[in-house]
Amino acid sequence: MFGFKKMFLIFCSLRLLGGVYLLEEERAMGKTGVFEKIFHLKESGTTIRTEFLAGLTTFISMSYILFVNPDILGAAGMDKGAVFTATALSAIIGCLLMAFLANYPIAIAPGLGDNAFFTYSVVIAMGVPWETAMAGVMVASILFIIISFMKIREIVIDAIPHDLKLAMSAGIGIFIAFVGLQGGGLIVKDDSTLVTIGSFASGETWLTIFGFFVIILLIAKKVPGAIFIGLVASTILGLVTQIIPLPTQIVSSVPSLKPTFGMGLKHLGEINNFQMWAVVLLFLLVAFFNTAGTLIGLAEQAGFMKDNKMPRVGRALAADSGSMLAGSVMGTTPTAAYVESSAGIALGGRTGLTALVVAGFFFLSMFFSPLLAVVTSHVTAPVLIVVGILMAEPLKGINWQKFEIAVPAFLIVVGMPLTYNISYGIAFGFLTYPLLMVASGKAKKVHPVMYALFFVFVLLLYILNTVN
């Protein structure tokens, strides 16, 4: 059985490669292929070969999510095998929607910030069962689709000050890095100081350190797929040193979705109190900003922006919200546009064909679930730390000279890791911003939506404080 599956995967890979180069040959001979008709490659100044390489590069750069997502959601009590499959399938759906709806070279998969919020803020901190929390994700997904079609999403996003958006992104990054430092054994709890440095007598800790340095050195050398390479290198070292047990197999059938599929739908009736509606709203807000900021940044990089607007942004948002709903049904947290798509764009990816290629590789990856057993928390910890570092980059764009901006931005950034709760960090910033703007005589500069959000977060903070 192992041999048949391995041969099947090799056949699929060769078929995919052969098809790409055959179509590229037809293009060179002047024939108009199906990809040209769908993705308008010539108009975008790209080729099938370029799009394929861009898709492969993007996939390698973001494929760590296949192992990190099950690890994080597994901490919430979810079945890792089912989450692995749900992760791959939601990424496939998101990339296909992005390819055919929006025709952008942008990949979609479950977001790191969203899964961290789900596990550590909702399930662990608030004590909400993961099945009920997944129902919250499903409701948020439905609302997400509605507000995307009604363009409410753009209205709210425009209302929130740019500095606070930057602070939210950076705060989530620092929170993720803190989770990684804990998971890797570099930071441990302490009765006197709350946290302290971990033990360097542990082989697992050194495995985390090794992976971290491999990744940062490769990124410094601008090596494509540095995060994925670092993850593989750490795994190999763990296997060689016997810190990680050898897997019994590499290729297997796709893990069943049964442990997680439809659980959110079955528990929709539990979204019946203030606590759960607060969770829904927070899921919506976190997902709200994840994709929007990434889309704009990637569009700037690829040169898609026209008159400070992103063409087909509505379709791109529809792709994101559609995959988010599909993911919630299968059993994974909200999806988001991946900043790692910039690696493929840098190689020349300019159309949805890049996203289509990414979807193809996610499909092939579904047959390698046994590798989950060797990708431990000490292997994924360096990934979380480095991603957190990369997400902290927006800190430079915050106007720290203005006190009424610096205070809410700072509270958002430090509030998330120090309270171990993303929602508290957001609440701190959204509560202090309008108050300070009014105190500094700038009340008219505050968008009415921000005043409305002030009262929303007063209620949310009360609810969260009551249930904890």
TrEMBL record:
GO MF term (any one): purine nucleobase transmembrane transporter activity
Transmembrane intervals: 52-69, 81-102, 122-146, 166-188, 194-219, 226-244, 274-296, 345-364, 371-390, 410-436, 448-465
PANTHER family per the UniProt record, alphabetical: GUANINE_HYPOXANTHINE PERMEASE PBUG, XANTHINE/URACIL PERMEASE C887.17-RELATED
Membrane topology type: Multi-pass membrane protein
Pfam families to which the protein is assigned, alphabetical: Xan_ur_permease (PF00860)
Record has Zinc-finger as a keyword: no
This protein's name: Xanthine/uracil permease
Entry keyword annotation includes Transmembrane: yes
Recorded family membership: Belongs to the nucleobase:cation symporter-2 (NCS2) (TC 2.A.40) family. Azg-like subfamily.
GO cellular component terms attached to this protein's record: plasma membrane
Location in or out of the cell: Cell membrane
Keywords: Cell membrane, Membrane, Transmembrane, Transmembrane helix, Transport
InterPro entries: Azg-like, Azg-like_bact_archaea, NCS2
